[in-house]
Amino acid sequence: MTGLNHATTGIVIALVFKRPELAIPLSLLSHFLLDMIPHSFVPLKRKKLFTSYLFIETVLMLTITVVCMVAFNDMWLLIGTCAVVAFLPDFFWPFYYNEKLRHVPGFRSFYIFHKRIQWSETYRGWLVEALYFSVLVIFLATHST
Ligand SMILES: [Zn+2]
Question: Which domain holds residue 73?
Fold first, then answer.
């Protein structure tokens, strides 16, 4: 799943659950659940496309997080934390491709788990991503605290 969908899911979880002891662990759990459903991917072989994709995604993630933090300002810390936690496991992808780190025992197990749950990555996964993102945006646009 894209980082944008992960982070936006974290924001929605923060707004729904409102309590950090629930929202933060659920945001982390949501990352792995979303990675298990069919979603898109950009092959690492196409580095220029991948770099552009990461840049656009980062800008969108930061924009939607800041907008939500301003719009729902009484919950800004929880929203920001949940957005980051929901995306966090994907932050490690560049490190997975480092041969030295890949062989560190705990890190290697996590890499294998994270890779295996993404069995359904496909080019057509963009449709699922776009539909899911639309649902999240509709929720945010109609939600009030
Ligand atoms: Zn992931």
Answer: 3-89+121-142
